[in-house]
């Protein structure tokens, strides 16, 4: 037999009840030296494993093409059977009187076993069936609509004609039903609609993802958002919150006198940022056009034209990589105000964020990525270690996540009460590194030498490479800020006065040479807003943009010279090969004169608490046993199942540096041996094990 050890960090009894089902009654060991209590979960024997594996493959094969086609064919047959009985499975409409959430609110007074049979208590609702259970002459279905879910109590004697038989024969999970009936609360306390009649409004032809695994393929979730929203209704809440945020921003800036405008999406030159654009071809004009990479330059043209307060909520397109924080198509909210500077934009940023928080959450103190108590226990106390592979001593540091750091494990409390902290980038870097770059001057080699001598042992290889590649002291300061400081800025913080080298569109600081009047707002370790006192000097602007083009062309030439293989392509060809050109029309507009102004931009999706699964893909830390795409199937299948959980990190042989990183992130670390058969984990997951 294979066995799976679960180690908790204290000698207290293990309390996850749904795991104890798998625990051996006598499998409790104690390691005195480390004060661990041990629970051994017995998995299947080899023979049973093979059989269970086949059964599991059969039970979860609805996602396979053959079974999917078979289910679709069966449901198409049901469609024809319904039509042969004069029942149209794709209705025109349904007159509903209530939503699920409305019913939950109106009839919350009903006691267990009580039914409301008044004439005014006849209700009509509609929604998708997401669960069903049938017992002889009784069936329970769960109906979900846009507002929530409610149980349908279907009793044979209550339904008209032969509808109960129709329910059992023709209604599947995924179908959209309209139902009528009265309200009751079951003896177990579940508010239900006692169905007197129903109609199939839409017959679903394809099966939904199964109950426990759900739609766990992250790429597929983004490609098929409609299935994602059916399987995970919390996703729809994200869209609702986003709509509230955009609406609140619009209300706020319009109250302040801003005018909403629309600027071109197709542009002759991709300006306002340094990013690879999407390129298309205009047949009538006979020239290339670019999907915009920023709205900035056209909004500034509006200021030149006489508008004093303008904003745009628009889509941006950048032909770059994909990650949980980057998407080729995204929304920005950008605004400009004449006769103001970046100090004014800080006040506006505070106003907008606090208004959005009140609109979405109703308060200014928020929990960021807070866990439930069950999740907390799971993350802090449960660790999977293969019995025959490693000893507890090997993992002493690996599993030592402090239980007393409750605030870190249960989320971070974010206070949005004003005023917010304001600090310069140089001072924040100095606090974090003890290096004062103001004293080092502009000597890049000296600055790099001091950096490596002070921080070298604590830097990862990729960070060292990034620092070594910095072309100026300003770039170096910014690199250190992003590596060391940025992830720790949990409370609202305005980071001020960025180096001029990385701020080509910002006005020079009025008191400090080499800096600009620019700030970025950080909350929860993420950039929320970016704002400048805008550069209005046309000659200075031309010089900076020309320098930006020159630096890009140097990188491009350097990359082109590094041929990679016989095809002559560079290793970074896809990253650096695009062309950057000056937007001469924008420079011409500046020469007509733009008033003093400030501007601010932010992505609207960063205003609410990020869901664990939907916008954050669990990180796979590569070990000796497997790497993504090449790991062995048994371990890989287990990892795929477990990695649907948030902040879940899997290894075959964890390295100390990776373990330290996970502890800093507060994640769950799992050690899965290359020789460990995945059947144990599969059995746990498919039998209902779900820490969420």
UniProtKB/TrEMBL annotation:
<dbReference type="InterPro" id="IPR006195">
    <property type="entry name" value="aa-tRNA-synth_II"/>
</dbReference>
<dbReference type="GO" id="GO:0005829">
    <property type="term" value="C:cytosol"/>
</dbReference>
<feature type="region of interest" description="Disordered">
    <location>
        <begin position="48"/>
        <end position="69"/>
    </location>
</feature>
<dbReference type="InterPro" id="IPR002313">
    <property type="entry name" value="Lys-tRNA-ligase_II"/>
</dbReference>
<dbReference type="InterPro" id="IPR045864">
    <property type="entry name" value="aa-tRNA-synth_II/BPL/LPL"/>
</dbReference>
<keyword id="KW-0648">Protein biosynthesis</keyword>
<feature type="domain" description="Aminoacyl-transfer RNA synthetases class-II family profile">
    <location>
        <begin position="239"/>
        <end position="628"/>
    </location>
</feature>
<keyword id="KW-0547">Nucleotide-binding</keyword>
<keyword id="KW-0479">Metal-binding</keyword>
<dbReference type="GO" id="GO:0005524">
    <property type="term" value="F:ATP binding"/>
</dbReference>
<dbReference type="InterPro" id="IPR044136">
    <property type="entry name" value="Lys-tRNA-ligase_II_N"/>
</dbReference>
<dbReference type="InterPro" id="IPR004364">
    <property type="entry name" value="Aa-tRNA-synt_II"/>
</dbReference>
<dbReference type="InterPro" id="IPR012340">
    <property type="entry name" value="NA-bd_OB-fold"/>
</dbReference>
<protein>
    <recommendedName>
        <fullName>Lysine--tRNA ligase</fullName>
        <ecNumber>6.1.1.6</ecNumber>
    </recommendedName>
</protein>
<feature type="region of interest" description="Disordered">
    <location>
        <begin position="549"/>
        <end position="576"/>
    </location>
</feature>
<dbReference type="Pfam" id="PF01336">
    <property type="entry name" value="tRNA_anti-codon"/>
</dbReference>
<dbReference type="InterPro" id="IPR018149">
    <property type="entry name" value="Lys-tRNA-synth_II_C"/>
</dbReference>
<comment type="similarity">
    <text>Belongs to the class-II aminoacyl-tRNA synthetase family.</text>
</comment>
<dbReference type="GO" id="GO:0004824">
    <property type="term" value="F:lysine-tRNA ligase activity"/>
</dbReference>
<keyword id="KW-0030">Aminoacyl-tRNA synthetase</keyword>
<keyword id="KW-0067">ATP-binding</keyword>
<dbReference type="GO" id="GO:0005739">
    <property type="term" value="C:mitochondrion"/>
</dbReference>
<dbReference type="GO" id="GO:0000049">
    <property type="term" value="F:tRNA binding"/>
</dbReference>
<dbReference type="GO" id="GO:0046872">
    <property type="term" value="F:metal ion binding"/>
</dbReference>
<dbReference type="Pfam" id="PF00152">
    <property type="entry name" value="tRNA-synt_2"/>
</dbReference>
<dbReference type="GO" id="GO:0006430">
    <property type="term" value="P:lysyl-tRNA aminoacylation"/>
</dbReference>
<keyword id="KW-0436">Ligase</keyword>
<dbReference type="InterPro" id="IPR004365">
    <property type="entry name" value="NA-bd_OB_tRNA"/>
</dbReference>
